C-alpha cells in the first residue's frame, strides 16, 4: 500500500502484519512499504513496515498514546 506523504505523519515502525490494537480506530492509519532504522538503513520488509497517519489525526494519536502511558504508569 502506498501512502500519500503530503499530509502523512510517521508514527513508527511495526512488525509486519501486526497493527497495535489501540491504533486500529484511527481512520487514516496507513502501512507503508519500506521501514528504515534510526540510521536510515533499510529494514527487512518481511519483518518491519512503517506506520503513518494523516496530520488531521495527530491529536487523536497523541490522546491514545497518553492514555496508554497513564495505564502503564498505574501498573
Q: How would you state the average pLDDT, rounded?
A: 92
Unreliable residue runs: none
Q: What order do the helices and strands follow?
A: EEEH
How would you classify the helix and strand content by structural class?
alpha+beta
Strand content: 15-25%
- Give the strand order of the largest sheet, numbering strands 1, 2, ... along the chain: 1-3-2
What is the count of DSSP helices, taking H or I runs of 4+ residues?
1
- Shape type: globular
Q: Find the count of extended strands (DSSP E, 2+ residues).
A: 3
Radius of gyration: 13 Å
- For the termini, the CA-CA separation is 37 Å
Helix content: 10-25%
Largest sheet entry: 3 strands, antiparallel
How many domains is the backbone divided into? 1
Characterise this structure.
With 75 residues, the protein is an alpha+beta fold. It has one domain (8-74). The protein has one helix at 58-74; strands spanning 8-15, 30-31, 48-54. The radius of gyration is 13 Å and the shape is globular. It starts with 7 loop residues before the first strand and ends with a helix. The mean pLDDT is 92.
Supply database-style keywords.
75 residues, 1 helix, 23% helix, alpha+beta
Topology, element by element:
Blueprint: E1 8-15, E2 30-31, E3 48-54, H1 58-74
Antiparallel strand pairs: 1-3, 2-3
Amino acid at each position: 500500500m502506498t501512502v500519500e506523504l503530503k499530509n502523512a505523519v510517521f508514527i513508527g515502525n511495526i512488525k509486519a502484519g501486526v497493527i497495535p490494537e489501540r491504533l486500529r480506530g484511527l481512520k487514516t492509519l496507513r502501512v507503508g512499504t519500506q521501514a528504515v532504522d534510526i540510521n536510515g538503513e533499510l529494514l527487512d520488509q518481511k519483518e518491519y513496515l512503517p506506520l503513518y497517519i494523516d496530520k488531521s489525526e495527530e491529536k487523536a494519536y497523541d490522546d491514545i498514546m497518553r492514555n496508554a502511558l497513564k495505564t502503564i504508569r498505574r501498573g
